[in-house]
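Hello,

Our lab assistant flagged a job as stuck in the queue for most of the afternoon. It eventually completed. Since we weren't sure the result was trustworthy after the delay, we are filing this so someone can double-check. Below is the sequence as submitted and the structure that was eventually returned. Let us know if re-running is recommended.
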Amino acid sequence: MVNAVGEAAIRGYIVPLASYMRMCLTGDLGGYYTGAIGQDRDQFGVKGDFVTSPEISQIFGELVGVWFIAEWISQGQPKEGVQLIEVGPGRGTLMDDMLRTIKRFPAMVDSIESVFMVEASPELREKQKTLLCGSDAPSEDCAAGFRSTGKHLGKPVVWAESLKSIPIEPNKVPFIVAHEFFDALPIHCFQSAPAPASTPRTASTSTSTVKPSSTETNSSPAYEWREMMVSPTHPAEVASDQAKAKAAGREASAAEFQLILSSKPTRHSRYLPESSPRYRHLKQSPGSVVEICPDASLYAADFAARIGGSDKVKKSQPCGAALILDYGTSDTIPINSLRGIRHHKLVSPFSAPGLVDLSADVDFTAIAEAATLASDGVEVHGPVPQADFLELMGIRERAEMLVRAAGTDESTAERIRKSWRRLVDRGPSGMGKVYKALAILPENDGRRRPVGFGGDVSPR
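-- returned structure --
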């Protein structure tokens, strides 16, 4: 059955992959995070569709909290204006563990002005409020959205639907965390294909200032980027598969939608793959595929502007930091990475739209590129494997402390051991290898590396 999200896609008939993902995940008609999940059903955890690192072990959030404490110390222990900002905070587990850890450092607590939770889902905002402030904590409207008082630090906790709702101010010290946020942002997918003879061999358009490369102007034959689009699967194909599956006693495999290659360039294919040399040099290789996430670059640029300033926001002194933890490629362009997850199993991303979690590999190099182009006041460290980051942060030592605290409770001790080892598993698909950490810091000419990335706490 096609739900409201699917019906909307059908009305558009053929839509870019990014549009399909946006409708499925955060669409007003029943997106995965904004209403399609049944009441009282949780996307996260054993009973949901997937488990995240903070849900696996409290140590994860504790170490992220320690990382920001170390940055606060290394940046001279600013006494005021500190903002803690989390984008895509899920159930709020990560921030809860971070705040519980930061509470042990009263001087940093005094410096914190507000905690910001950037969350699009009304249901998740309520869960976060209950966890961070208490179920009976009063709330009030504010410029960004609404706010309440946190139970850990006694500081305002503000909920905003968009990062744009939080002003970029030159006198603030933003500490930003994005865990499994970038992987859920919509991607565009493009493939190189032969260009018709009548198509001009240039990468520029009436609205683009990108100059064609010598390869594009002199090579023969010419190639152009075509966009992968989402189209409904023909009803006859779906019905036939369902009949065959029923006769064989198996589950039908035909999805309600499918990816097809556009028959001609689109407005996205004319610009996005020409926006970086990383993509442009692949165009003359027929069949080359690239996945591009414009939203990821916009968020990275926003983080960088908050930390290092920009042409619009002048900061006398860059300050703050952003920590991004997600799964993706270290130095290559993601391809064919779109996946659907339901009930902890991989499923077609084109089945049950709005009821399946969609995600794609993060292009960390593109994030780093966007951040450094947006602000001269920042530098990027990483990405490094999650296993390396957590081990340098002391995950093994913290786990041993918790095991000792468990005493004779061997079942709890074993759970602690299994949890932290899962987070640093370096196997082919282990979380310690697949997940990466990347940091955006104030520019310091490479004189200081942050904790977890080969550096140590170095107070000013």
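-- support follow-up --
The delay was a queue issue, not a problem with the job. The result is valid. The CA atoms of residues 194 and 293 lie 24 Å apart. The first strand starts at residue 15 and ends at 16.
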